Amino acid sequence: MAYLFTHFIGEQPQGEQIYFSLSKDGLHWKDLHDGKPVICSEVGECGLRDPFLIRKADGSGFVIIATDLCIANGRGWDAAVKTGSKNLAVMESKDLIHWSKPVLVEVSVPEAGCTWAPEAIYDRQQDNYLVFWASMVQLDGDKEPKQRIYAARTKDFHEFTKAQVYLEKDNHVIDSTMVYDDGVYYRFSKDETTKNIKTDTAPDLNKESFTDRPVPNLEAIYGVEGPEIYYLEDQKKWCLIIDRFASHKGYLPLVCDSLKTMDFKPLDESEFDMGKTMKRHGSVVAITDEEYDRMAEAFGLE
């Protein structure tokens, strides 16, 4: 068992493209391709932020979806929020090495100002994928535009159903991620107003099924975003990584024995190594030892 981290590295030139890093334990990372991007975009906004990699449920390959955005190109955050891309950038591969060029697929509602941090999860009940992202939209009754999580469904990442509001809170909400474990879906989202991570759970992926699940020790950590959750097979623990964007310290891993308790404890800096590059909002997936060796040979470890 090994792990692949798909991410970008920041707003510098070529930073908002797709980078790969590998790990044997999910805590100590080595950058691939000499710390250079593996996939670059020449379409839309010419950026690939917040990449999320998912293994297809039928085992036929992999898909990356990413935010079509490049702040380094100069339009700035205000334009990105209010008049940003309504597209997802989609890339596919059969072997994690050879990737299709980014293709843009419009998924957001016409009123949307952005399509940020897309992720996907396989719905076992409906045999399709729920794809979700954050969009700034001013709906009827809103005094001003608000960040909500929208969602659509797809079977192939080419055609999508009409986007609908999937998660709305009193505050702005972005950066949702979900994981399924033992009959329960666990969702972690950034409160964009208070800048911390909130959690809710559900027995299925219907938006009405979720109920808030307070996790005080997690909510007490402020100035963070980009939560990602994955299982550390060797340690038999869950790992939640959160990006300490406010302090520019990069990702912090927190671990717990069970998602039922969610007693997350932050690791000491000596217990993990995120590699040489400053990793920004991405995703972690488990891969086989064979896939690890193949990627290490193809791209070269640092």
Describe the structure.
The chain is mainly beta. The chain has three helices and 20 strands. A hairpin with a 4-residue loop joins strand 8 and strand 9. The mean pLDDT is 97.
Question: How many helical elements?
Answer: 3
Classify the helix fraction into a percent range: under 10%
Any idea what the radius of gyration is?
A: 18 Å
Largest sheet descriptor: 4 strands, antiparallel
Q: Any low-confidence stretches, pLDDT <50, length ≥5?
A: none
Give the H and E element order. Answer: EEEEEHEEEEEEEEEEHEEEEEH
Bulk shape: globular
Distance between the termini: 20 Å
Query: What structural class results from the helix and strand content?
Result: mainly beta
Average pLDDT over all residues: 97
Could you give the order of strands across the largest sheet? 3-2-1-20
The amount of beta strand, in percent, is 35-45%
Number of strands: 20
Short description:
The protein has helices at 76-83, 216-219, 289-299; strands spanning 2-8, 19-23, 29-31, 49-55, 62-67, 87-93, 103-106, 116-123, 128-137, 146-154, 164-167, 173-181, 184-191, 196-202, 211-212, 225-232, 237-244, 250-256, 265-266, 280-287. The chain is mainly beta.
